[in-house]
Amino acid sequence: QVQLVESGGGQVQPGGSLRLSCVVSGFTLDYYAVGWFRQAPGKEREGVLCITSSDYSTYYTNSVRGRFTISRDNGKNTVYLQMNSLKPEDTAVYYCATRKEYYCSGYDHDYDYLGQGTQVTVSS
């Protein structure tokens, strides 16, 4: 059974940091691209970052450049989203998704599996 489980969300003050994890079970991540998406209240889900199987990362949201990074540990079947200098506008539910392709995509419908999400709230 395929499962994508996100964790690491929570409430943080502006300027703070969080590291999200996405643990995948049911298949090995070695040949999959993995993306992080987010959905803020009242808005559509948007692509944030993606990483290819060869560790090449692509940003889909310019506002996170220089603050968010993505990494993967295939040995642990896990992908991480490091979020620094968080802002209130980063508040959203964050999802990870996988696709059995080398190339990334900023559209969630291009992915095969999507996790249940983890809430990130940035407020003082």
List the helices and strands and how they pair.
Blueprint: E1 3-7, E2 10-12, E3 18-25, E4 33-39, E5 46-51, E6 57-59, E7 68-73, E8 78-83, E9 92-99, E10 113-114, E11 118-122
Parallel strand pairs: 2-11
Antiparallel strand pairs: 1-3, 3-8, 4-5, 4-9, 5-6, 7-8, 9-10, 9-11
Overview of the structural elements:
The structure is a single chain. With 124 residues, the chain is an all-beta fold. Helix content is 0%, strand content 48%. It is built from no helices and eleven strands. The protein has strands at residues 3-7, 10-12, 18-25, 33-39, 46-51, 57-59, 68-73, 78-83, 92-99, 113-114, 118-122. The strands form two sheets. Strands 2, 4, 5, 6, 9, 10 and 11 form a seven-stranded mixed β-sheet that branches. A four-stranded antiparallel β-sheet has the order 1-3-8-7, with no helix packed on it. Strand 7 and strand 8 (78-83) form a beta hairpin. The protein starts with a strand and ends with a strand.
Q: How would you classify the quaternary structure?
A: single chain
Query: Strand-residue fraction?
Result: over 45%
Low-confidence blocks of residues: none
Distance between the termini: 40 Å
Identify the overall geometry: globular
Overall mean pLDDT score?
96
Primary descriptors:
124 residues; mainly beta; 7-stranded mixed β-sheet; 4-stranded antiparallel β-sheet
Task: Write a brief caption for the model.
The protein has about 120 residues and is mostly beta strands.
